[in-house]
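Project standup — Tuesday

K.O.: blocked on the structure for the chain from last sprint. Re-posting the sequence here as requested.
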Amino acid sequence: MYKFPYWLGLACLLANPAAAQFSVATPSPARTVADEQPLLSLPAAQALALEKNAGIAAAGNEVKATEGALQQAGARPNPELAATMEDTRKSTRTTTYQLNQAIELGGKRGARMDAAERGRDAAMLELAVKRGEIRSAVTTAYFGVLGAQERQRLAQETLKLATTAAGMATRRVSAGKISPVEETKARVVESSARLELNQAASELITARKRLAALWGDNALRYANVEGRLDGLPALPEIADIVARVPNAPVLRLAKIEVTRRQALARVESSKRVPDLTVSLGRKRDEEARRNMWVIGVSVPLPLFDSNQGNLREALSRTDKARDELQLAENRLDLEVAEAYERLRNAHQEAGALQQDILPAAQSAYDAAGKGFELGKFSFLEVLDAQRTLFQAKLQHLRALSQGHGAAADIDHLLGDDELTK
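H.V.: unblocked you, prediction finished:
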């Protein structure tokens, strides 16, 4: 009786396009409850985060607070109404009603308003920086979900092939074609593939939660994200990066902080000039039965308190802000260089994998299948070639994900169009 050759079944399995070609498009498995949820695009994810992120809301409230501080800084001193009575006897009593008005000298009001304006500028820039930070975080998390989705798909394909291979090994053992040891090895490979699938599913859940947390969604009201990982952002030119560094958000914030501290130092310096208080009132002398005008001027004498301590503190904090500006410049140079190197390495790694490693692994996989057909290779050698191919695909996915994350970090560090307005 004619027997179906096992090598022919394996050859059909190896010819499966899903296993022979590397594609990062999201597959279409059986419909589930999660599949009824909408797919999430990157613009939609960014819009959700910009609208609902608590950090952006906090930065917006800080802007409102600084606007209130600016309003209060422009307020002038209130007048003071005073009443004085001398002697309680009606016949000899003297009563004085007096209006006192403090007049600020030394440019105190202007210095306060300048400091408040610098504080408002800093708060507005911090809001823009926070928005850019959230956009960058969403982009990184979004491509992390894309990578996790693709890894799960590859793990599903690996398990499917391993399960089929284990079944084929069982049938060949029953037919006396191979040793039971081969079946045991095939079952071990199947168990490992199942563990990898469970790990991939867990990483996908974690990646989805990390993305949804950026807009405070604990219910995960989306199924998967849509998009493709193939294709990295272009590697920027060094000259372009150098030109963008001076306008980086972190440096602009540090520079504004220096000017704000200088303005606060001017506020403390202006307090060394005493304010003038002008008084105007009327005095009623019951004994003399007549009214008298009262005019007065008072000036505090800065004998014991000349605000030297506060001025010294403000000047030291100004020096501290300058030091922090220098520190921010050094740190920015390092972080941009690191992000650039990560992006460059991702380009090189992804290119090498796409052009050399993946084709070689695919060729080895095909050769192992043909060798198995001719009896030159064992069944586990075919499985090992298949596993090598999928490991190369996973490495390619990691390189693409890291490249997208590095590009997002560069855009965040150097700022975007919103921050340069």
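K.O.: great, moving the ticket to review. The chain has one domain: 6-76+107-253+333-420. Residues 1-35, 417-421 have pLDDT under 50 and may be disordered.
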